[in-house]
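Let us practice reading a record.
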Amino acid sequence: MIFKAPRTLCAFVVVNLLAALAVSTMTGVVAPRAANAASAALSQSALPLNDTAYPIPAGALYVSPSGSDSAAGTQAAPLRTLGNALTKAASGDTIVLRAGTYRESINSITRRVTIQPYPHEKVWLKGSVVVTNWVPSGTKWVASGWTTRFCTTCIDPTLVQASYPAAGYPDQVFIDNLPQDQVLSASAVVPGTFYVDTANSRLILGSNPVGHLVESSTMTKAMQFNTTGAAWSVVRGIGFAQYAPNWSYSAAPAALIVNTSGITLENVTVAQSASRGVYFKGGSTLRSSYVVFNGMGGISANDFDNGTIESSTIASSNMEHLSIAATGSQDCAGIKLTSSTKVVMQDDVISDNLCNGAWFDVSSSQITIVRNLVQRNAGHGIAVEISANAIVASNVSTDNGRLGLKLSGSSSIQAYNNTLANNGTAQIGVYEDPRTNPNSTEFAAGITWDAARIKLVNNILSSNAATL
């Protein structure tokens, strides 16, 4: 265990730490529930999407890939696009999507709606187009007339590693749903890679596209909820993939953007975003969902007050291999929450993210983190930083690259009944932070950014190395 505290730790308690891994034998320890499926079984070639059968109310609007936007929107005469259905929907209406792929970007939803698939049908919204005009050119293939342009300077350059120089570029190409690596010159194109030749408006591909589905991203976001008029909207049973937001928060910070409170995302899949998968501002609920294979982070949130993330799998974030070294702009994580109050994260699987697993930061408070399986993340498993008033209980945090549980500059933390095993740096790290909260109101409320009143009780620590 690591303790680094230049200042005094008030009422620091460590009780009954047992170096054992048999969770079931320990009274009071509750193992995490399985969320969807083990991430080791996830595959980009067949992205996961839960089967659903939601009831359809009378008067619902129907949409189908074979429909027409001049139709009535009934089951017998469906509309063609979700965007058109949203213009026709009144507050409180339900929109039912028939099976298929919809290549759309919904800029702003401002009234309460429910969006769901027809029972037992698979529905995907994709931010890409199918590219078919490939012509062989030596050992490569070229598609002319490619005019899509994304911001290539919106990334903080300190996050881009020399071995992944295109990591900040949102361009994406997929062959049979598998991402190709972007390179920065035509001469560097080899099988498994692509180059965007902006000077000549071409895509250059290194793998033979003949007989394969080739898709390339053209849209930055899938859907955005704005204003309180959209509160209590529900999106359920739908997949979102291949959108290309950039790193900056100023425009489209994620594929799926929730800028109001009271939204429920249930049984959704958000995958293959060039940057973040989901962004929340305001308290909402994510339940029984997959947020996987995203370029930078899985879920990012600010002011996520009264928010819940439960029974979901957040895995394989940072597919772009951005640096996870500490910087002032670093926020790469499976889940990264800031300035959020009364948040619950429970029964989730947070695994195989090439960054931190779950990271609560910058004056977050009244946090409940329980019964989660946090494993094989490149950074810390669970981190609570310059925050306060958290319960971290009955989690399993194992085989993470850094700390299993990091508590830094945080106060009034209760961590109990957790299993922390085989983590890279140590199982638990408690640190002081050199910063002091400049917000006098938060400081008076006990969010001081100092390490104090920390209790570690009945946790299991185990390691195969000398990092216990």
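A brief commentary: Residues 1-31 have pLDDT under 50 and may be disordered.
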